[in-house]
């Protein structure tokens, strides 16, 4: 079971993630939107420019969320490893996402992805990572934190298996989900995007 200190650290990271989503929308400027606009796409939205700004803002927020979530999961992994008595290997883990010594004495070098589909085009890269770990006498694991499908390949861990590895318990994944269960009511992606789209439309109209 996660201790209170770990819970607070993890919850803080998720709250910062939600704050970052709003910030990413607000940082999108009218100049940036217009400079990157494609004639065909712009024409398709020509009858409702606000929808176009909504579309572009939604793209920005979605991309920002995916990037930031990956970074948050890496930080949470560090918290969980240390909470179960593991040790993070000092120095940058490149080209891996995390290197740590498990309480069982084994050193793991892991890649952290959202879903298995992200890795279909990187089979050669994954093979090279496995070989690097093997040569160093370490264990390579490719972890999909948002994918519950089990793989026949031993080095691939689905969501539950990943959370168990870094958290030391089969219940770790469920504990993390329970911890953040109330956050959904604190933020509306739609309202964030809609609000910024309206602001961009207003700026656009004033500039005509």
Automatic annotation (TrEMBL):
It comes from the Bacteria. This is Uncharacterized protein. It comes from Vibrio orientalis CIP 102891 = ATCC 33934.
């Amino acid at each position: 079971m996660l201790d209170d200190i770990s819970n607070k650290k993890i919850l803080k990271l998720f709250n910062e993630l939600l704050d970052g989503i709003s910030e990413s929308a607000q940082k999108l400027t009218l100049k940036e939107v217009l400079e990157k606009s494609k004639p065909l796409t712009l024409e398709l939205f020509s009858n409702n420019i606000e929808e176009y700004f909504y579309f572009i803002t939604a793209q920005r927020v979605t991309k920002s969320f995916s990037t930031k979530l990956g970074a948050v999961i890496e930080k949470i992994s560090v918290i969980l490893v240390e909470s179960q008595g593991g040790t993070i290997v000092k120095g940058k883990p490149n080209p891996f996402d995390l290197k740590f010594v498990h309480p069982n004495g084994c050193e793991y070098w892991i890649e952290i992805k959202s879903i298995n589909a992200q890795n279909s085009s990187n089979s050669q890269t994954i093979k090279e990572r496995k070989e690097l770990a093997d040569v160093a006498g370490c264990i390579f694991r490719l972890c999909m934190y948002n994918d519950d499908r089990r793989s026949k390949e031993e080095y691939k861990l689905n969501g539950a298996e990943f959370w168990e590895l870094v958290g030391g318990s089969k219940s770790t994944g469920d504990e993390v989900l329970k911890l953040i269960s109330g956050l959904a009511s604190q933020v509306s992606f739609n309202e964030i995007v809609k609000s910024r789209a309206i602001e961009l439309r207003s700026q656009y109209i004033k500039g005509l």
